């Protein structure tokens, strides 16, 4: 009898391991590079992805150093093409072929063996149909996708890599927030039909980005219980269907939209979904933990949605892996605080990303600059200090000073010191970046107060390789957002 029992136990353990791996394979993370002082890619891959059994990652650009760090890791990768490149790729087959050669073929693994990168998808743009963009990118998306597809054909990679187009949830609309009434925006009808036809022909899924926190900002009447997957959520009734969470509402609104367009059976991937931890009211580590825990448990259950029972999204990518102090804050200061980990790779809370019952592993051997901070010199005349702080925040990240932010309650002149230090760290602690007309003072005493952390930044050895990545968007609206908050705290 013993051999039978042993085989049964081995089979059971194998099954459990397989199920765990299947679940882990369905959940990934977005890894963005909009940071002034990013962690070295090797640290991210070994210290965060591998250490926490994160097997899928979505990139917003094809950064050589990042792709090289992923080689041989076994991580499945989505490589993104920035919106700014779409028009060129639409107009030039040669440009598409060159892009595929330089960013895909060069790194792609051969037959799953060796030290190559396991590239699974190429993402054309990042929400190029966003309503706020107007028609800036819309006319070029499908053409760019076709040219990249043809380049993959020529490179003999078309059977291994699929093309996707990440779409914001504002590509569809619904009446009274009922999923069954979902339909694509009328201004997108023609383009969306072309896109869906292309995706159907190449057997690619539809990629939907879901932003529950943004929806809460736009409509304060949204139920926090529904948004955070709480069991106490009062269900939304839509005919015979009941919805207890915002995630399922979003998925089924897309399903209804796809059905009305004639593509009701198209597979779905969630390209971005998450909850911020700072920079706004209701943005906290506890809320983010509650959201992600509920999301992962819901995905693990594989119950699907009322319109797609037992058919959850093929893959779901959490937004995001790390905080990014250079992300655009045009929609809110919270945009820079979606990371599960802080900018330096330290977990903000614990959630099961694939590591099971263990706590999340933090990045190790992180190289910081010296333990020095820039604060306001209280022995000086401070009547013009607020102006200096506003100028500092126009360049540096002061989003934690926002209402609801972790540093909103430190008062004046503490908020001035926070602004000074953000600017000082941004400029690698150069002495002249703590001048501010004689109002700044360099100190070795940590000025952090409670949950308001005055950061010490990282060595910038990797930063220079990412400078070409930074868009102009991060500059817009920063001064406007922070000015109001700083002036409100001034006396």
Automatic annotation (TrEMBL):
Family membership, please give it.
Belongs to the glycosyl hydrolase 17 family.
Q: Which Pfam families match?
A: Glyco_hydro_17, X8
SUPFAM superfamilies cross-referenced by the UniProt entry: (Trans)glycosidases
In the UniProt record, the signal sequence range is 1-24
User: Which InterPro entries does its entry note?
Assistant: GH, Glyco_hydro_17, Glyco_hydro_17_plant, X8
Q: Name one GO biological process term.
A: carbohydrate metabolic process
Q: Which UniProt keywords apply?
A: Disulfide bond, Glycosidase, Hydrolase, Signal
**Statement: the UniProt record of this protein carries the keyword Disulfide bond:** yes
- Identify the domain of life: Eukaryota
Q: Which GO terms describe its molecular function?
A: hydrolase activity, hydrolyzing O-glycosyl compounds
Q: Where is the X8 domain?
A: 372-454
Does the keyword Ligase belong to this entry?
no
Name of protein? X8 domain-containing protein
Taxonomic lineage of this organism? Answer: Eukaryota, Viridiplantae, Streptophyta, Embryophyta, Tracheophyta
